[in-house]
Each structure stands twice: as C-alpha cells, then as structure tokens.
Amino acid sequence: MRIVGIDLGTTHCAVASVDPSRGPGAPVEDFLVPQLVRQGEVAPRALLPSTVYVPAGHELAEGALTLPWGDDGGPWVVGELARWQGSRVPGRLVASAKSWLCHPGVDRSAPILPWGAPADVQKLSPVDASALLLTHMARAWDDAHPDAPLSKQEVVITVPASFDEAARALTVSAARKAGLEKFTLLEEPQAAFYDYTARHRADLEQTLSHVRLVLVVDVGGGTTDFTLVHAGVSPEGPMLRRLAVGDHLMLGGDNMDAALARRVEEKLLTDGRRLSATQWTQAIQAARTAKEALLGHAPPEKHGVSLVGGGSKLLGGTLSTELTRDEAQALVLDGFFPRSSPADRPRRAARMALQELGLPYVQDAAVTRHLAAFLAQHAAAGFAALGETAPAEGALPRPDAILLNGGVFNSPRISERLVEALSAWWPGAPRIPLLRHESLELAVARGAAYYGLVRRGHGLRIGGGAARAYYVGLQRAADSAEQPALCLIPRGFEEGQKVDLGERPFSLTLGRPVQFQLYSTTSDRIDKPGDLVPLVEDLKPLPPIHTLLKGASGKVAEVPVHLQAALTEIGTLELYCVSDVADERWRLEFELRGTGGSHELTVTESMPARFVEAKDNIERVYGNKPLPIGPKDVKQLGRTLEKALGARETWRVPVLREMWSTLFAGASKRRRTEDHERVFYSLTGFSLRPGFGYPLDAWRAEQTFGLFDALVQHHTDKAVWTEFWVMWRRIAGGLDEARQQKLYAYLQPHLARKVPPDAPPPGKLKGIQPEGLEEMVRTAASLEHLQPGDKAELGRWIAARLKAEAKSGGPWAWSLGRLGARVPLYGSSHKAVDVDTAEAWLTLLLELDLRKIDGASFAAAQLARLTGDRTRDLDPALRERTAQALLAAKASETWVRMVREVVALEAADEARALGDTLPAGLRLS
User: Secretion signal: which residues (predicted)?
Assistant: First the structure.
C-alpha cells in the first residue's frame, strides 16, 4: 500500500505518493497525471488544471477524447484540453469549482456551473465538478498501478485551512462520488509545511534552530489562508505546534486576474460599456497569462491581449489592447499587497461583498491588511511562542520566518513585495527570512503524502489539534439579555476523540425535526466542552444542523437526550443526539442547500402572559369539539387575538410560530364554514410568514403544504380563494424546489389562460376553477426556486398584459420585479432569469413611465439592481437610465443606490420585495 497525497486546488491539481514500507527515509514521488492536452493527444503532466469543459454536440472530433484507460470522459473534458478549449470557446468552461464549495449563497449540490452559461449548456454542481477532477486522477492512477488501485491506498486530500465544516463535508462527498472511501483531509498550509520538513528530515533541528514562530502565507487561486506554527525544542527533539489559522478569505489569484481583466475592459471599451460574459471569460484567461508574464522572471515592458468579439451583441471581430508592466504592478502589487501600517485593518464598506462571476469575494483585497488583522487576533499566542510579552497594546508578534505557498508566489515581485511589506512593520529588526521551497505547485501534494508517513510515526508531526472551536446556540433565558452558547469542541481537540455532554440534557419530541445553530471560531479562546459562554461576535454561524427524530417504537413522545460530538479521522465534525433512556442516537446533518438569506436564527423567547388565552381562542374555533360560538366569533378571531396579544404587527416570531402550531393542529376543522376556511388561511399564512428565518420553518412549511392537494372546500367563495393564495405567497420561501414546482404546475395552465391579453378564449380546465387571479400571479412570482424558463414564461405573459393595459393597479409591475430580480430573497442566484429577459422587462417599465404604473419604481430597482456579478448585471447604460428615471419619479434614495452600488436591502425593502410585512425582529440579510 502507498500513501497518496492529492492537492485538489482551485487552479491546478497535483498527486504525489510515498511507499511507507521503505521507512522514515522513503522518498516522496510526484505522479504525472495523463490527460488530454489537445484533441487526440494525451500527455503526462505534473499538474492537472482544475477545469472541466462542456463540449457542444459534435464540436470535438469523434474519438478525440479517448484516454489511456479507455474512457472518453462522457460529456466532459477534464484538465489541460479543457483549459485550452475553454479559452477559445468561453461559456462552456467550469473553473474554480473549489471556490463554489464554500459559497453559502447557492445550492452547492445543484447543477449551476459554468456560471451564467446559456440554457443549452449542460451544467455541473460544484460537488460533481470536484468529483470529476478526483475521478480523473483516480483512473489515471489505477491505469498506472493496476495492482494497487487508488481506492485501496491511503489517500490524503488537502483543503484550505479556512474551509468551514460545510465545505469540508462537500469535499468528502466529492471524494466518495469519485469512489474514494479511505481518505483523510489535511489543511493546505500544514501540507506545505510538511513538505518543508520532508525535505529537511536529516537536518530539521539545525534548520529551525533559530526559528520559534513561522508564518505560513498561502495565497491560492480562490482563497487566502494564514497559519502560525510554533517551532520549539523538547527533550525528545524538535517540536512543531500549530497555533492558529485565519478566518475564511475568498481572495486569491482569481481576483488578481479579474482586476487586470477590468483594466483590459476599460481600455477596450472607453464609452462605459462592458464586455459580454463570454468576452469576460476570455479576458480573465488572457489576464492570467499577462500577469504571469509581466510579474514573472525577466518581464517584458508590455503584453498583448486579444479577445474574439464574435457573437456579442455589443461588438464583433477581434479586440486587441496591451497591458503594461507598470499597470500590472500597480494593480496587483499595490492593490493586493500594499505597503500598509501594522495598525491598518481590512476596510469594510456598508455594502454586500463584491461578486465576480457569481462568487462573493472579500470587500478589501489587501492581503497585507488581512494579515495584520490575523496577527493582531493571535498576538497573545504569537508572543507566547516567541517567549516574549507584548511591548505595547496593539503590538504584533514578529515571525522568525515566512513560508510561502500558492502559485501566486511564483512571481518574484509578489513574493518580494509581501516580505518587504511585512518586514517594514518592525523597522528595527532585520528582514524576515523565507523558508525555501522547491515547487509552489507541487508542495501541497508532496506534503500531503509525507503527512501520511508522519501519521505512521515516521517523522515529526505538527501538533495543535482542531483549528477551530465549535459551539451550539442555546435558548436565551427570559430574564437574560445574552444568548448563551454551549462549547462542543474546543480549539486543539485531537482527531478521533469524542465529547459526551451528558451533563447537559434536554428534551426533544420524537417524530419532529430538531435544528440547532452551530458556531465556530478560530480565536484564542480557552473553553472546555460543556462550558456555557455568551454568544459574541467572534463566534461565526455555520449552516444549521438538523435531523428528524424517529424512535424505534414509532410513538410520539418526549425523550431526554444529550449531544455527542467527535472530530473524525477524516477531519470532519460529527454530531449526534443521544437518548438518555434507550439505546438510540440520531445523526445531525448540515443544511448545505444554501440561500441568499442569513443563517441567523431568532432566539426562542418565552410566551406573553396572555398567550394561553390566545391559544384557547384559536382552539374554540378549530378544536376537535365544536363549541357554542357564532359566525361573528369566527370572523373576528384575528381581532380577538389582538386583544390578548396586542396589535398583530408587534407579534414576534416565537409567538407566531407557536400560534401556527395551534392553528395547524386544527387544520382538519377549517372546512366547517366559509369563514372558518378563510380565517384559517389568513392566520396560518400570517403566523408562518415568510416561511423561513426561524428554527424548523422548513418543516412547518412542509407540513402546511400537505393541505395544498385538497385546494379549498368552499370554492365558490372568492374571498376564501384569495386568502388561500395569500397563504402560499407568504410561506413560499419555506417550500423546497419540488413543492414550488408542484404549486406552479397547478397555477400555470390557469395563468396561461387568464394573464396574456392575447390568450385564446379560456376553455374550462377539468376540476375546480380557482378564483383570485391577482393573488395567483403574486404567488407564482414569489416562487424563487422555479427554473428560469418558467419565470421567463410567466414574465412574458405579465409584460404583455402590462403593455396592453398600461394602467396603474394590479400585481403586474411588482410581479415582474420579483420574477426578474437580480438578487433573490431566499433562493439560489443561479435561478435568476437571463440578462436579456430582465432588460426587456425593465425597458418596458421605463417606456410606460415609472410614475404611472403602481409598483413600477421598486420593480425597476429590483430588475436593475447591481450585484457585481456580470452574468446577472444589466447593461450599465440601462442601469443609469433607470437611476435617472427613479430620481424623476422621486423614488426612495435607497432604490437609486441599489442600482448604482452593491448594497444590501433595507428592512422596509425586504418586506416590499416579499409583498408583505416581516415579523417583528426578523431580518432576511
């Protein structure tokens, strides 16, 4: 058996291995990965580009994709040919899939890549794209080692140190899709350090004799990682211990390429226009090549850039310009590695993170400022490793050496600038030395393989345990202003160990899902498992964890349980609810679907003093036994509840969700009279709005959707139908894609007959005929999980209606704005309609005059909203025209800002976009 290290990189992948049977001196060997480099041409390369190409039909010659192991790759091309072909036919290239694994704003298991590609391009999920790269490496290895397939080897796969548990879980999923089962995850900065120790096995103690604190700076294609390692001496010899890792920074070589590509765009289009998405992809590729040339060894004065303009609605032919060495240095060195003060910190504007091709990058691109913040956060641990005390408040610990990693540092100018900028923070000290490397591209894979050898006792292991501490949020006490969090796993916890929090029991109900909010931190906190701490800012929320508790008996009952946590040998977090009365436990899984909303959960609160009275009033109307109440009591149930609880606008989320529970328990009694049914839908929708944002909302929405198939009992009463549709609009955000599709499948044939002004005379459909057209339209427009094609279809009907009637009132403008919104309220942004469609709708609203159509101004702002993602952003000239129209219509200043700047929605605008009020205390972003 061999130990195989795999660097699953953002830009490139690499493989190395070592034979443990040869003992501590076993050499680490690179594995050259056979891959298609041109059609019909296979060559072994040390690096496998992390790219996947999606060919169109018969674009590539038959048989031109055959690989040595007899596999043509199916519909995909992986590696060098994918990169080469993708630079010539943009829009079909999947790149930076690894960066998408840590993007919480999209469904990372959905086929969304290539981002912004036309509808006819077959798409991949980030997980599947990563699995394809791993599969290619596995089959290449198996072909070269038929008696030792990769699935039977000990595999170490590297991930960024800043990957959270969700991204690690997705990496594990990709590895298993590739057929790997026996593998471990290792952080890339550690792998780079292991490569260094592997090359100094014979003289490591001497090499590190004057080094106590090592700073590892890893700038890859999509992420930047910082790690501090303490190098010490014990009676047994040298000792290495990881002190700290940095928070997640989506910042790397891709951002530098984008900065240079924007400069190319400015030079080519001097009139404020932008390159099309296809041309932008070409510009990124060309900028990367220019960067490597202009910041490399013996750089030229300038580098030519050419783009093919064919197919663009803006331009045709070939576009050419040049990037100069001075421009590259100004944009990359001064923009990403500026000479800064040790007191400088990352700049945070009051806006959302910028996006480029869909990815939410950090707001401040200055690596040096992020590095100063990292050293400040871990100053105490750094000074302790140095055996010093901080000379003054705010002082930073000076590392004795720097180890660089990542292809960005192949540029001697970038490496020099970083060391120069950092050394200047300690003006009285000598320049900080660099620990030498042999290959920035191969160090991580080599170090991963050597790490496997170290785990067997053949080498010096880097101690330090878990890089993060993990906490779970608990219910806030009624008399407390602070929400507590329970420490599950402290920093430094070793892999393979378990924590059993039996001293913290609580009760859960079998047959109902349970959800916890998990938090993590990389700060230097000293907490023990089971400690209760205040929920403070440095505890960062992870995706919620959840499970459905089903007992062996199948009965509904309250059971006492406690939490059990472990760091697996793979390197991932496992959590269980363990029964205190039976031999049962339930695995807690991360929610990885991703939404555009926040993961923040409103804290559970105690109920108002008169809530029992309100509950009794609901049960009087919808209880199992009809009580002597009259029609007036049913009609005025909402008013009766307000007498007990205050004005309904003040009801907080916990009160509303408890009210939903009481209402839903009486759902079967809603059909007693027209008033029973109408009031039930009205209060149920109100109590569950907006369908998400509070623990277990998805489960509540799922339970409520069980009522949909029955439609309405009193189907001749339009008021009942209206409240029925209002309820679904209000809770739409809690319905998953399958349920939203089912809802739209019912609505679509009715809307097709009633919305377009030129629709043929509506023939009657079979079954009950729904009423309430305007609320049906609003409901359909609120279904953000629909496919873009369905949204575009409905939008075309609405646009035709608007154009024909051109009058104020109705749901038409609001619905267009919701269907074409550039930024979803809760859905994944890959479901946004295409730019051409949104521009057509926006142009119509502008032509009709925003001042004359009800809701048109806000709809226009939604359609023209700036995201920073050019695959979704409209033409700049049209956006500016919209901004001017909004000013002329005396629209809100915040609407004008969202067209001109990348900003988050104000609370009032979130409610406006939903077409409803938000519960008191709830924010979506």
Answer: none
Is residue 728 domain-resident? Answer: no
- Residue 47 is assigned to a structural domain of this protein: yes
Asked if 778 and 725 count as a contact pair (C-beta separation under 8 A), the reply is yes
Q: What gap in Å lies between CA 245 and CA 160, rounded to an integer?
A: 10
559, amino acid identity: V
| Other residues' Cβ atoms within 10 Å of the Cβ of residue 561 | 23
The domain of 487 spans: 469-594+919-924
Q: Which of 605, 220, 600 is nearest to 444 (CA)?
A: 220
**Tokens found for residue 408:** 């960005």
pTM of the model: 0.83
For 686, how many CA atoms within 13 A lie in the half-sphere containing its CB?
18
Structure confidence at residue 791 (pLDDT): 98
Number of H helices, E strands in the chain: 30, 32
Contact 199/223 with Cβ under 8 angstroms?
Answer: no
| DSSP states along 199-210 | HTTTTHHHHTTT
Considering only CA atoms, which of 602, 318, 652 is closest in space to residue 473? Answer: 602
d(CA 676, CA 670): 5
pLDDT bucket at 350, cuts 50 / 70 / 90:
very low
Please tell me the predicted confidence (pLDDT) of residue 673. 94
For residues 556 and 553, give the distance between their C-alpha atoms in angstroms, rounded to a whole number.
9
Q: Which amino acid is at 798?
A: I
Q: What is the chain's alpha carbon radius of gyration, rounded to the nearest angstrom?
A: 30
Q: What are phi and psi of 604, to 5 degrees?
A: -65, 135
Contacts of residue 636, defined as CB under 8 A and 6 or more positions apart, other chains included, come to none
Please give the pLDDT value at position 473. Answer: 84
Residue 709 lies in a domain: no
188, 203, 227 - which closes a domain: 188
CATH code of the domain in which 116 resides = 3.30.420.40
SS3 for 537? coil
Segment 215-242 mean pLDDT: 88
So what's the pLDDT on residue 604? 38
> How many domains is the chain built from?
2
Q: Is residue 529's pLDDT more than 50?
A: yes
Q: What pLDDT, on the 0 to 100 scale, is given for residue 751?
A: 96
Q: Rounded to 5, what percent of the chain is helix, strand, coil?
A: 40, 20, 45
Where is 860: in which H helix or E strand? Answer: helix 856-864
The identity of residue 658, as a single letter, is: E
* pLDDT 10s digits, 484-503: 888 998 988 887 788 998 88
Antiparallel, parallel or unpaired: β 401-405 and 213-219: parallel
**Residue 787 domain-assigned?**
no
Backbone angles phi, psi at 567, to 5 degrees: -100, 115
3 state DSSP class of 337: coil
Distance of CA 309 to the CA centre of its chain: 32
pLDDT at 310: 52
Of 141, 164, 188, the one marking the end of a domain is: 188
Compute CA 8 distance to the chain's CA centroid, rounded to the nearest angstrom.
19
Positions of E strands within 427-497:
462-463, 469-473, 484-489
